[in-house]
Amino acid sequence: MADHDPQQGEQDLEKKIEETRQRFNSELLQDSTDKYDSRDVERLEQDDALVEAYLTWRQYVVDDALKMIDDSLLWRKELGVNDITESTIPRWMFESGAVYLHGYDKEGNKLFWFKVKLHFKDAKTAVDKKKYIAFWLERYAKKEPGMPLTVVFDMTDSGIGNIDMDFVKYVINCFKVYYPKFLSKMIIVDMPWIMNAAWKIVKSWLGPEAIAKLKFASKAEVQTFIGPEYLPSHLGGTDPFKYTYPPLPDDDFQTPLCENGPIVSEDDVESKEGEMESRETLESSFNSEIVAKPKKGWLW
User: Fold this and answer.
1) Which parts of the chain span the membrane according to its record (predicted)?
2) What pLDDT score does 193 carry?
3) pLDDT value of position 192
4) Which of 291, 248, 231 is nearest to 106 (CA)?
5) d(CA 140, CA 250)
6) Angstrom distance (rounded) from CA 211 to CA 178
7) For residue 123, what is the DSSP state?
């Protein structure tokens, strides 16, 4: 049996990347200059890692990678992903704390939290919710290019009223189609038994590569994946973090990563403690605003 030749493998990959680009230009771009956002086309032409990500996610089958690229770039233009900023998202979505980035799993992957009990179906805000998810994913991709995310669905105290299957499908497509190689794992924590049927439907939407990344965990089992230092107290952890807005949490992405997350100096710890005090003060004022505000349906 012949030994694997790394150099040959690199050459084969380069050929696949070049073939993908050539076919993208000849078969997908054709004579239409406004089919996609020109910024996305330029990035695809220049960023080998991006093309490789599509190829890897589609098992190096160029036809399948091209289909994924087409779907992804059409979605990005339709939603205006490149122009989504903090100011284009309704403020109350940030204030709700239903979605945010914070902490790391035991493999050093950033955690993307979904607080399911805060999510309610509302067709009127569906587009803004999709942009909101894209905002967080774009923000992370720019800060940590090439680094995967671990999605955590915290289902504590959630029920049937918090389920919006269309939106669940959208979130899955973000990782299955729109952001290749972005998902490390998807952890569903403390799922009520009454939602078993819904999650069977969800699993039917996932390809085999995504199903392998789906993990169901009780409150006791979640520490298999996430250390207590990045788990809230209601999940048996010791993390004192409390989400508030503004400012956006986790603007201080830190590297290098150790097994249990970022390496933090003593000065950083003291700085964090000061930030926590100011965040708690902000939290009390914004919570009073949210309570006084008419209830707006979130996602799920």
Assistant:
1) none
2) 77
3) 78
4) 231
5) 10
6) 17
7) G
Q: Which two tokens stand for residue 38?
A: 């020109």
Asked if 115 and 75 count as a contact pair (C-beta separation under 8 A), the reply is: no
CB burial of 28-43 (b: ≥16 within 10 Å; e: otherwise) equals: beeeeeeebbeebbee
What gap in Å lies between CA 169 and CA 19, rounded to an integer? Answer: 31
What contacts 165, CB < 8 A, 6 or more positions away? Answer: 198, 201, 202
Q: Which residues in the chain land under pLDDT 70?
A: 1-9, 31-33, 207, 209-210, 250-300
Provide φ and ψ at 27, rounded to 5°: -105, -30
Residue 113, SS3?
strand
Question: What letter would DSSP give residue 294?
Answer: P
Residue type at 171?
V
Say how far apart CA 247 and CA 95 lie, in whole Å: 10
The label of the residue with tokens 């952001």 reads 179
Long-range CB contacts for residues 274-278, cutoff 8 Å, separation at least 24 = 276/240, 276/241, 276/242
Find the helix or strand (DSSP H, E) in which 76 lies.
helix 62-79
pLDDT confidence of residue 50: 92
Write out the H or E segment, with its range, that includes residue 42: helix 38-46
Give ∠ CA 44-47-49 in degrees, rounded to 5: 110
Is residue 154 within 8 Å of 116, Cβ to Cβ?
yes
Nearest partner of 101 among 270, 247, 212, 223, judged by Cα: 247
Q: How far apart are CA 186 and CA 137, in angstroms?
A: 15
Largest CA distance in the chain: 71
Which tokens in the block code for residue 73? 């770039």
Please calculate the CA angle 144-203-300 and round it to the nearest 5 degrees.
Answer: 70
Rounded Cα–Cα distance for residues 51 and 68 (Å): 11
- Determine whether 50 is exposed, middle or buried from the number of CB atoms within 10 Å of its CB (0-12, 13-18, 19+): buried
